[in-house]
C-alpha cells in the first residue's frame, strides 16, 4: 500500500477489512503500515448470514489499534450512504480468511 495514499486518508472515515475477514470502520488517526493502524471512534461490523435469525451488529471499540500486517484493504467511507444503512438488517456471507 502506498504511504502517500494512506496518508491522504488521515482524519477521514475509512473501512478496513482484515486478513481474517473482520470489518472495521472508524476515523484513521495514525498509520505505520509496518506495525500499526489506529482508528478513532472505531466500530466492528459483524454481518450475520441470511440463515441466522440474530440481527447483524455494530460493536463500539473506541480508539482501536490494528496490526498493519493484518490489514487487507483500506477504503474511504461514503458517509451519507453509510449513515443511511441500518447495519442491523444487513445480511451476507462470511468473508473467509486470506491467510493460508
UniProtKB/TrEMBL annotation:
GO terms for biological process: mRNA splicing, via spliceosome. One of its GO terms (molecular function) is mRNA binding. It is found in: Nucleus. Residues 1-80 form the Sm domain. One of its GO terms (cellular component) is precatalytic spliceosome. InterPro entries: Lsm8 (IPR034103), LSM_dom_sf (IPR010920), PTHR15588 (IPR044642), Sm (IPR047575), Sm_dom_euk/arc (IPR001163). Keywords: mRNA processing, mRNA splicing, Nucleus, Ribonucleoprotein, RNA-binding, Spliceosome. Belongs to the snRNP Sm proteins family. LSm subunits form a heteromer with a doughnut shape. This is LSM2-LSM8 complex subunit LSM8. It comes from Pseudoneurospora amorphoporcata.
Amino acid at each position: 500500500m502506498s504511504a502517500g495514499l494512506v496518508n491522504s486518508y488521515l482524519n477521514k472515515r475509512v473501512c478496513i477489512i482484515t486478513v481474517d475477514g473482520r470489518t472495521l470502520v472508524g476515523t484513521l488517526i495514525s498509520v505505520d503500515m509496518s506495525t500499526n493502524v489506529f482508528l478513532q471512534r472505531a466500530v466492528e461490523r459483524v454481518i450475520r448470514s441470511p440463515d441466522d435469525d440474530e440481527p447483524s451488529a455494530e460493536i463500539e471499540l473506541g480508539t482501536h489499534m490494528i496490526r498493519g500486517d493484518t490489514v487487507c484493504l483500506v477504503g474511504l467511507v461514503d458517509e451519507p450512504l453509510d449513515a443511511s444503512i441500518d447495519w442491523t438488517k444487513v445480511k451476507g456471507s462470511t468473508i473467509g480468511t486470506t491467510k493460508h
